[in-house]
Amino acid sequence: NNFYIFKKNIIENSHKINSDELHFLFGRLIDYCVNKCNEGLTEYYVDLFNAYIVLLENRYYTNSSNKYISQDLFRNIFQTALRLNNLKWAEEFINRYRKDLHPQNRDSMYHYCYAHIYFENKEFDTALNNLTKIKHDYFALKIDVKLLQLKIYYELSMYEQIYNQIDSFKHFITNHELLLPARRNKIKDFIMYYERILKAKFKNDKESAGYLTEGLNKKTDKQFFKWLLQKSEELKK
Q1: Could you tell me the sign of the dihedral formed by the alpha carbons of 143, 184, 178, 69, in that order?
Q2: 79-114 per-position pLDDT tens digit
Q3: CB atoms within 10 A of CB 63
Q4: Cβ neighbours of residue 55 closer than 8 Å, sequence gap 6 or more
């Protein structure tokens, strides 16, 4: 209840609040939604998305010391739109707000976003081509890129690349200190199911695919595992 009161008061009194304070207050609003989503309350993604829209329309992502939208925020807004299956909005967002990124980040974020757009549209070769144009100096993108590469390699039956990627990915998530435990465990879970689906595919094992589908359907964060669920259901049929 306090969340909605807080949001309403910020918006209604925004004309009385300076840009730095609005930047801070909306940041806390978004942090609350993100924390709730991370706790498994995925219904908060709608509130998060709506908060992002208000933030963008009013340019609350800027303050006196920074006129650009951060890479982290840009990525999070885009990924939230994807989670809600709002591809059209996501593409409009890329093209409208790309110019508000720092010039050195614009191209990488553009190719990162379009790699996901092309993947969702089943244009896998074009998605992979966009991934090769991303600079890997931003930690959060490294994880996203590796996950998307695994999906694309599966769709294109690039098995040698799959095994090389899985091996390096396991080492990466085990050893990287910046990865939060909950995020690390979720990615490990993704890889575990990915390997089992791959094994079931090679063996044409419909029974195993059925068990995998059952397990994936029990996941709290169904959107994160959505692609794996689709692949396990395909094998079942």
Answers
A1: positive
A2: 999 999 999 999 999 999 999 999 999 999 999 999
A3: 16
A4: 26, 30, 61
C-alpha closest to that of 144 among 212, 211, 82? 82
SS3 of the chain: CHHHHHHHHHHHCHHHCCHHHHHHHHHHHHHHHHHHHHCCCCCHHHHHHHHHHHHHHCCCCCECCECCECHHHHHHHHHHHHHCCCHHHHHHHHHHHHHHECHHHHHHHHHHHHHHHHHHCCCHHHHHHHHCCCCCCCHHHHHHHHHHHHHHHHHCCCHHHHHHHHHHHHHHHHHCCCCCHHHHHHHHHHHHHHHHHHHHHHHCCHHHHHHHHHHHHCCCCCCCCHHHHHHHHHHHC
Residue position matching structure tokens 């995998």? 212
**Which pair of structure tokens corresponds to residue 151?**
């999906």
State both tokens at 134.
């991303």
pTM (2 d.p.): 0.90
What average pLDDT does the structure give for the chain?
91
Cβ atoms of 11 and 51 closer than 8 Å: no
Q: Is the pLDDT at 56 greater than 90, yes or no?
A: yes
Of 188, 117, 108, whose CA–CA distance to 147 is shortest? 188
Could you tell me which of 168, 102, 186 has the C-alpha nearest to residue 137? Answer: 102
